[in-house]
Amino acid sequence: MPKPLIIGSRGSDLALWQANYVQALLNQANIASEIRIIQTKGDQIQHLSLDKLEGKGFFTKELEDALLRKEIDIAVHSHKDLETTPPEGLIVAAVSERADARELLLIRPECKDETQPMQLKKEAVVGTSSARRKSQVLSHRSDVHLKDIRGNVPTRVQKLRDGQFDAILPAKAGVDRLNLSLDGLHVVVLDHQEFVPAPAQGALAIQCREDDKETLAMVQHLHHAETAAAIHIERTILNRMKGGCHLPLGVHAEAAAEGWKIEVAFAQSWDAPTRRWTERVSDADQAIEDILTQLMSA
To answer: pTM of whole model > 0.85?
Structure first.
């Protein structure tokens, strides 16, 4: 009997959901696997916002190192966490079908005001550590107060319930995957055009060693080509802008009737003015170049 694939994962509830999801798909193909938890720098350092952490790959480097040391066979990542230039010897072997990529605005009921943009009361305290989310919140509501928040999704929701914030901004995919109860909170689903997600938000990346042809063949059936094509557009733009989580850039591409509809939001810094626009194009490569030209001149 062949030995089971070793799946590397972070230890958060959401990361383990993702690893178990991949494991279930492997099981359907009669491929045995085991999950191994690996702690990352982003998990260890909880007192700093992401834009204050030094280096790159805060939630991925330790998993990638374990792959290169052959301690695990595949690593499951939130695709948006991966560096756009992979370490030598590693490859994204498969991209999952994308879940809902939109953002949620979760508001304590006493802090909602449906007469205001984003249904949020004036001078509200909004918790987020993302430069992209900060810049887009301020583009809609310059009066709000931004406050850094860290922790996994359930922890952030509990901090909101405890009154540390008036509102927070998690990704809808994470809340949906964990089936978190939002009872008692006011939930606003933010449209792609109104609030542009991070490149690759909502998709999983299954990463392995480039020379491990056997594992590559095993996970190919997990690959969702349409999601991968959309993410290619988003992450190519991010890569060419030399961006990571420090860059206030949102890009979301989806297949349209005659090509692609691409939403873009960009600011030079989280507290600088945000530009937001939509591209409707037939050719993805030309769209990338056109968007980059506009970003470079922003």
So the answer is: yes
| Model pLDDT, residue 53 | 43
Which two structure tokens, joined as six digits, stand for 38? 């690996």
pLDDT band for position 258 (cuts 50, 70, 90): confident
CATH number at residue 152: 3.40.190.10
Task: Choose the final residue of a domain: 190, 211, 238.
Answer: 190
Catalytic positions: 81
How many Å apart are CA 236 and CA 233, to the nearest integer?
Answer: 5
How wide is the angle at C-alpha 212 spanned by C-alphas 94 and 240, nearest 5°? 50
pLDDT for 246: 80
Residue count of the chain, please give it.
298
Q: How many domains does the chain have?
A: 2
Pairwise CA distance, residues 237 & 266, whole Å: 11
Distance from C-alpha of 287 to C-alpha of 99, rounded to nearest angstrom: 24
Asked whether residue 291 is assigned to any structural domain, the reply reads no
- The verdict on residue 111 lying in a domain is yes
Per the structure, the complete domain to which residue 211 belongs is given by 5-96+203-223
- CA 241-10-166 angle, 5° bins: 70
